[in-house]
Specification:
Keywords: Transport. The chain is mostly helical. The chain is built from nine helices and no strands. The longest helix has 26 residues.
């Protein structure tokens, strides 16, 4: 996997868009730009390829399907969708909620990923399977049907060993950590902002 990276590079060098590069406008009620966010979310899904198991395909495809729902709305009404918050509020005004529901599920998926990686970073002895299982229980599992839960649970058990995963992110572990930490912090910030927004009355349908 690491052979595809630039010399001395890491997985994070291959991302088309990093969450570090998604500006959150604090002066405009933490507005999140739609285009940059969707590109960063798409880029994040390549992390599931690094995890290296076909069992993660449903997780990846679910997230990409939700990205498409949001982008379809953005393309249909670009001037009303420059930020995710505007996209949601303007879609709901039209008595529609396809993209809004897609964003809700996408944020849950991103929250799952962020919580798993944060737990694993904070506990250097914890295997990925434990981190991902715990994150799944906290984020997606309460919202999944009994048909979906086994599919996602299978993915949690298919994670590589911790040492193998970090090695796949790059040969130089200092560089991996230096890239992973700010990316994860930026992802967590976006997730926090969007969870707070989606919990508001005006974002419900």
């Amino acid at each position: 996997m690491a052979a595809a990276y630039p010399p001395n590079g890491t997985f994070f060098d291959t991302l088309k868009k990093s969450f570090v590069d998604v500006p959150v406008e604090s002066g405009k009620d933490n507005a999140v730009p739609t285009t940059e966010f969707l590109e960063a979310a798409e880029s994040l899904t390549t992390l599931f390829d690094v995890l290296g198991s076909m069992a993660f395909n449903p997780v990846k495809n679910d997230m990409l399907g939700n990205v498409k729902k949001i982008r379809d709305r953005q393309l249909a009404a670009p001037t009303l969708s420059e930020t995710l918050q505007d996209l949601v509020l303007n879609e709901l005004k039209e008595k529609k909620h396809t993209a809004t529901e897609g964003l809700l599920w996408l944020v849950r998926g991103l929250d799952f990923t962020a919580q798993a990686l944060r737990a694993n970073l904070n506990n250097s002895s914890e295997e990925l399977s434990a981190s991902f299982r715990s994150a799944y229980s906290n984020t997606l599992k309460p919202h999944h049907s009994f048909l979906i839960k086994p599919i996602f649970s299978a993915a949690m058990g298919a994670t590589p060993y911790r040492k193998d995963f970090y090695a796949k992110l790059g040969a130089d572990q200092d560089k991996v950590q230096a890239a992973l930490v700010p990316w994860l912090e930026a992802l967590e910030k976006d997730v926090t902002v969007l969870k707070e927004f989606l919990a508001r009355k005006e974002a419900k349908w």
